[in-house]
Amino acid sequence: MIRTAIVAFGFSAQTFHIPYLQIEPDFLWSHMVTSKPEAFQLSHPEVAVAQTLADLAFDQLDLVIITSPNHAHYEQAKYCLEQGCHVIVEKPFVLTLEQAETLKALALRYERQLIVFQNRRWDGDFLTVQALIDNHSVGQVKRLVNRFDRFRPKVRARWREQAGWGNGITWDLAPHLIDQTIALFGRPKTLWANITCMRDGAEVDDNFEIWLEYESLQVVLGSSCFSAGPNPRFALEGTEGSFVKFGLDVQEGALKLGQDILDPRWGQESEENWGILYQPDQSKMVATKPGNYAAFWHQVALCLEQGGQSPVPIDESILGIQLLQLAHQSSHQGRRLVLDEPVMGE
To answer: Counting Cβ atoms within 10 Å, is residue 299 exposed (0-12), middle (13-18) or buried (19+)?
Structure first.
């Protein structure tokens, strides 16, 4: 049994973490760190509460999950590793490459696992694109567009949209798109980015475009807050065809509604939202693979209890932070950047 604590009782903890910890047999959610313990215990009286990390009973824990605001990730992850716990950190992992490498070194020193919560590796649409690439349905892949657009033309009163280090849409959504790209293609050769602040009254960036170039492949990542109509979530193009998929994975919406994770239909998308594969002599709808966030937790359990592989290799998460840093640098300097020596084991 993996004795687990969560840091911060916000949207991420309530939506993506707690529902799985409550049903996964390998985990025991026993402790919570929150600045509002009274309010928390009204809904979860069975969970022990601490108001700060320093008050947490680390001798009763194996794993700490950090879901606090972005700027706090590094110091909190560092502290938990030093206390001898495995750590899962919400994306973005940290805010600098130096911080990422320091945490990796600490995890190795204390022989603990350090895992970034990149749940969208188990989105149904991404799993479908991954399968199409693996079975060469579009031939040699030449271009991938990977977008996470929304219609949010007005600034909201929440910390992600307030001035502060690590806030803004690029730190919020680009980690998903960059991590999916790394999972598919590894390390790019060059990067160019345009990160902008377009809404009236906006204090942080709210739109981005990032171009990643590989040996014979281009990946375009982006997000707009002015997308009121349907935009492709994925557009995959190759030498023998192309694939277009609209709409977001259904799991987040189902989690918000409190739907049953154990339902055998979990993560399945209705047929009208399937993507279309276009080939020279035909076009056909492709059934979206079922999304499966539970797979992340199953792999974490195997990793911690049986020495299995991490569901999100830490070197890939470090590369993701490097690319995020370079994206901000590229946008600020207005130029394409060539990546330096490899971060991953190439």
So the answer is: middle
